[in-house]
DNA sequence: TATGAATGAGCATTCATTCAT
DNA sequence: AATGAATGAATGCTCATTCAT
């Protein structure tokens, strides 16, 4: 998406661009997009606020590029999984793993996405977020539904509600996950899958517990 | 909670205050705190921006009152559960139910909390969020640990990771839950508990699946 | 100056008016007119800001009345002195004494006058300050000039410059004079007159000192 | 005197800063600090209000710099005088001369000081005004007391009252003195000293007048 | 490549004032 | 005689953005 009226960064210098976007993403994630000043980003990059406009059209444009880059890479991985012809359960597991890998590689972008997407979709510039969201929902929901159909997933769950729970469960991890921390993305994924697939309760023969006591509370 | 010098809304008129806080909370939740202008709140309330200051000291003060009100009510419910001497699993279930009830009653406040808490704790005025957070973690974590001890919860899960998983999943529901929607908070809680306690996978199959395929991927 | 459109204080209740003006004058003097909020005055008077408008047309109107009252009383005393047919020197002394008495009785008003008059005269409402100022200058200047003419005052002083020094000398005392303090207004006047009339230097026969060393500095 | 985070006017461009402070000082002096809007200062400088913040942290910061610059220069001159080992009377004369020179060079700052100092000292930022005030009083008072001790000044005057008298008279001159007017600062100082040291009354007359008529009035 | 200086729109907040009760 | 609630204009200040150099 080169040149409009101003020349902008001469297409070259993409390394510096990436570097700047990286700084920006970290600040956006840490402070929130609205609360982040262009000056703050420039400070982090060791330049003056105005100088950023040599590389980017606007603050919004920086945000857009950060999110696009993240989503492009995410979908590459997702599409590979979805096109692999795996069983629903294995697909489910693979999607979770890829999600944690995306968090690992694009933590700031994921956090920004989580915090800001809702407001952003109101702007034309960020309509692509909506498209991604829709595609995302379709991928997960159909995986769940196929799983129910082939009896890999329980039939008594509302798939839409389950979808939301699972989706949030995965992505919210970006708020506390730290790359190079105790667990690799694959290990975190394993734990998550263990919980989501098999539950946290100890299994036993009597079904008593299967029906939580909430019923009597309503 | 009386104020410094200004009498402000003469202590009476608490109805109007609550009404205004309600409008404010909805805007804060929908648009984000920083992005919300007091003009916007005033517009929604049918008054001029300056008039809000008859009732509230500042925009921050509104936010504080919104969050305090929510947390106060949440802790009343939580404390009742925690002091009831229930088994870990029943405690867990009850906490989940109360959480969804809080979301039902204070959805905007919960959403604000989710989105803004991280930035807010840097301000003295919002240190109480940190205190609440700590107490919250203690309550959940100890419930999980007690559950593991008495073999109501699986011993092979990292309790801290499980805690985050549960915490996030529950509260993130505020972003999509709509009061008066299809499900009551208790019904949502039931579905959630069903998933979290027992997993979404169909049981009593071969144990092969218990070990997800991720291992072979790293 | 009764009623314009609004009834205002029913002409009666002049005691309450005076009380309120007194509070107002003290705040104006202490904090400065612009920096004084109507709310602050009302607080001091134990009422709400809006309630002041039952008694006064506006904040400006309060200020006007405070200054008018002061100047009216000052001129009554000044006129008595000026009309008494006294010698220039005795007139001078009497004017100084009356000035300190005015400070004693209207300290806040004097302070306000000192601080604000310059800005106020730009407004029509306060043109009377200019008139008073002119009359004031005439009274003092002519006294000084008459004194020079009859050789009661030194002929080698620039009367305009001397006028300004004397004028300021007297009135600036309002900034530190405290009624009921160590000195009565008459005693302060005596000290001031002693300095201004006879100087603070010890008198001696040689005139050497009469010519300060500043000449060699220019 | 570097600033917190913002580099502000990149340390260079001190000429523009001084120019702007000059405009600001004139407005502060003419209109009063509180009554001065930053828009007004910006107008005078031919820029927009917000642009001032490229050079200065705040309106307060401008005021501070104006007053500090003035006081720094004043104390340089005062200290030179005080350290010169002059007799009390010559010290007195020299301090007066330096005061009028300061008025000549920093008239707006002096006027601002006169009008605003009392309110400003309440703020931490302006505590240095208090320090200067204390040092100032010590310098003048000790000069007067030394003068009394060596019989250069009359012993029958209250030195504190005399101090205030002299202090006020000198500085209030800033309200009417106009640089490039009829008199140089040295000439004004000469006239002032003539009055204050020797009095305005014609000497060697009968002593009857030495005791003003006030006594009979109390 | 970047800076320095400025813009202009917008923001939270203050405050004198109004007026029905 | 005073209150409670609101107005509306102004204020100090911030910030994304521009552009000549």
UniProtKB/TrEMBL annotation, chains A, B, C, D:
DNA-binding feature ranges: 37-56
One Pfam family hit: TetR_N
A single GO molecular function term of this UniProt record: transcription cis-regulatory region binding
Name by which UniProt lists this protein: TetR/AcrR family transcriptional regulator
Keywords in alphabetical order: DNA-binding, Repressor, Transcription, Transcription regulation
UniProt keyword Transcription regulation present: yes
Residue ranges of domain HTH tetR-type in the record: 14-74
